Amino acid sequence: MTIREVLIVDDSKTELMFLSGLLQDNGLSVRTAESGDEALQRLADAKPDLILMDVVMPGQNGFQLTRSIHRTPEYAEIPIIICTSKNQETDRVWGLRQGASDYITKPVNAQELMDKIKALGGPSKRQ
Protein backbone atom coordinates (compact mmCIF):
# COMPACT_ATOMS: atom_id res chain seq x y z
CA MET A 1 0.00 0.00 0.00
CA THR A 2 1.29 3.43 -0.91
CA ILE A 3 0.47 6.23 1.50
CA ARG A 4 -0.41 9.50 -0.19
CA GLU A 5 -3.42 10.84 1.73
CA VAL A 6 -3.51 11.21 5.51
CA LEU A 7 -6.38 12.08 7.84
CA ILE A 8 -5.20 13.77 11.05
CA VAL A 9 -7.66 13.57 13.96
CA ASP A 10 -6.76 15.94 16.81
CA ASP A 11 -8.68 18.57 18.76
CA SER A 12 -5.59 20.82 19.06
CA LYS A 13 -5.23 23.38 16.27
CA THR A 14 -1.51 23.65 17.13
CA GLU A 15 -1.01 19.90 16.63
CA LEU A 16 -3.08 19.96 13.42
CA MET A 17 -0.94 22.77 12.02
CA PHE A 18 2.35 21.12 13.03
CA LEU A 19 1.44 17.66 11.72
CA SER A 20 -0.18 19.02 8.55
CA GLY A 21 2.90 21.09 7.74
CA LEU A 22 5.26 18.18 8.40
CA LEU A 23 3.30 15.77 6.22
CA GLN A 24 2.74 18.26 3.41
CA ASP A 25 6.47 19.11 3.42
CA ASN A 26 7.05 15.39 2.86
CA GLY A 27 4.73 15.24 -0.15
CA LEU A 28 1.57 13.93 1.51
CA SER A 29 -1.96 15.21 1.05
CA VAL A 30 -3.65 16.03 4.37
CA ARG A 31 -7.20 16.37 5.64
CA THR A 32 -8.03 17.13 9.26
CA ALA A 33 -10.78 16.47 11.78
CA GLU A 34 -11.11 17.92 15.28
CA SER A 35 -13.45 15.28 16.74
CA GLY A 36 -14.54 11.69 16.35
CA ASP A 37 -17.75 12.69 14.59
CA GLU A 38 -15.88 14.92 12.16
CA ALA A 39 -13.37 12.12 11.52
CA LEU A 40 -16.17 9.69 10.64
CA GLN A 41 -17.59 12.28 8.22
CA ARG A 42 -14.17 12.71 6.58
CA LEU A 43 -13.92 8.91 6.23
CA ALA A 44 -17.33 8.80 4.57
CA ASP A 45 -16.27 11.59 2.17
CA ALA A 46 -13.03 9.91 1.06
CA LYS A 47 -10.98 7.03 2.45
CA PRO A 48 -7.43 8.06 3.44
CA ASP A 49 -4.35 5.86 3.17
CA LEU A 50 -3.39 6.55 6.81
CA ILE A 51 -4.95 8.05 9.95
CA LEU A 52 -3.00 9.88 12.66
CA MET A 53 -5.15 9.69 15.79
CA ASP A 54 -5.06 11.71 18.99
CA VAL A 55 -6.48 10.00 22.08
CA VAL A 56 -7.67 12.77 24.38
CA MET A 57 -10.56 14.49 22.57
CA PRO A 58 -14.06 15.60 23.56
CA GLY A 59 -16.79 13.05 22.88
CA GLN A 60 -15.46 9.81 21.46
CA ASN A 61 -11.81 9.39 22.43
CA GLY A 62 -9.12 8.16 20.07
CA PHE A 63 -9.07 4.63 21.50
CA GLN A 64 -12.83 4.29 20.94
CA LEU A 65 -12.61 5.78 17.45
CA THR A 66 -9.67 3.54 16.51
CA ARG A 67 -11.63 0.47 17.63
CA SER A 68 -14.71 1.62 15.70
CA ILE A 69 -12.74 2.27 12.49
CA HIS A 70 -10.79 -0.98 12.80
CA ARG A 71 -14.01 -2.98 13.21
CA THR A 72 -15.73 -1.38 10.19
CA PRO A 73 -15.04 -3.62 7.16
CA GLU A 74 -14.64 -0.82 4.59
CA TYR A 75 -12.08 0.98 6.81
CA ALA A 76 -10.41 -1.94 8.60
CA GLU A 77 -7.33 -1.97 6.34
CA ILE A 78 -6.51 1.72 6.91
CA PRO A 79 -3.44 1.90 9.17
CA ILE A 80 -3.80 4.11 12.24
CA ILE A 81 -0.90 5.66 14.10
CA ILE A 82 -1.92 6.95 17.50
CA CYS A 83 -0.21 10.28 18.31
CA THR A 84 -0.86 11.16 21.94
CA SER A 85 0.50 12.64 25.14
CA LYS A 86 -0.51 9.41 26.92
CA ASN A 87 2.94 7.92 27.39
CA GLN A 88 2.37 4.92 29.65
CA GLU A 89 3.17 1.45 28.34
CA THR A 90 -0.37 0.35 29.25
CA ASP A 91 -1.74 3.14 26.98
CA ARG A 92 0.46 1.97 24.09
CA VAL A 93 -0.61 -1.65 24.53
CA TRP A 94 -4.27 -0.64 24.78
CA GLY A 95 -4.01 1.49 21.62
CA LEU A 96 -2.49 -1.38 19.67
CA ARG A 97 -5.20 -3.73 20.99
CA GLN A 98 -7.84 -1.34 19.61
CA GLY A 99 -6.40 -1.83 16.13
CA ALA A 100 -3.71 0.83 15.81
CA SER A 101 -0.72 -0.06 13.63
CA ASP A 102 1.69 2.03 15.69
CA TYR A 103 1.87 4.45 18.61
CA ILE A 104 3.90 7.62 19.07
CA THR A 105 3.92 10.06 21.97
CA LYS A 106 3.81 13.85 21.93
CA PRO A 107 5.70 15.98 21.49
CA VAL A 108 5.99 14.21 18.16
CA ASN A 109 9.51 13.72 16.87
CA ALA A 110 9.24 14.54 13.15
CA GLN A 111 11.86 12.01 12.05
CA GLU A 112 10.33 9.23 14.16
CA LEU A 113 6.87 9.90 12.72
CA MET A 114 8.12 10.00 9.14
CA ASP A 115 10.06 6.76 9.71
CA LYS A 116 6.87 5.08 10.94
CA ILE A 117 4.91 6.39 7.94
CA LYS A 118 7.65 5.24 5.53
CA ALA A 119 7.56 1.79 7.13
CA LEU A 120 3.85 1.63 6.26
CA GLY A 121 4.43 2.68 2.63
CA GLY A 122 4.82 6.44 2.90
CA PRO A 123 6.87 8.81 0.75
CA SER A 124 10.46 8.00 -0.13
CA LYS A 125 9.90 4.30 0.28
CA ARG A 126 10.61 2.46 -2.93
CA GLN A 127 7.84 0.07 -3.82
Structure report:
The protein has helices at residues 13-25, 36-45, 62-70, 89-97, 110-119, and strands spanning 5-9, 29-33, 50-53, 80-84, 102-105. Strand 3, helix 3 (62-70) and strand 4 (80-84) form a beta-alpha-beta unit. The mean pLDDT is 94. The protein is α/β, with parallel strands linked by helices and 127 residues long. The chain contains five helices and five strands. The chain has a five-stranded parallel β-sheet, with helices on both faces. 40% of the residues lie in helices and 18% in strands.
- Spatial separation of the terminal alpha carbons: 9 Å
Structural class: alpha/beta
In the predicted model, the low-confidence regions spanning at least 5 consecutive residues are none
Beta-strand content bin: 15-25%
**Gross morphology:** globular
Task: State mean pLDDT (0 to 100 scale).
Answer: 94
Q: What summary fits the major beta sheet?
A: 5 strands, parallel
Query: Quick one: how many beta strands?
Result: 5
Helix share, percent: 40-55%
- Roughly how many Å is the radius of gyration? 13 Å
Strand order of the largest sheet: 2-1-3-4-5
Number of DSSP helices? 5
Element string (H = helix, E = strand): EHEHEHEHEH
Key features of this structure:
127 residues; alpha/beta; five-stranded parallel beta sheet; 5 strands
How do you describe this structure in short?
With 127 residues, the chain is of the alpha/beta class. The protein starts with a strand and ends in an 8-residue tail after the last helix.
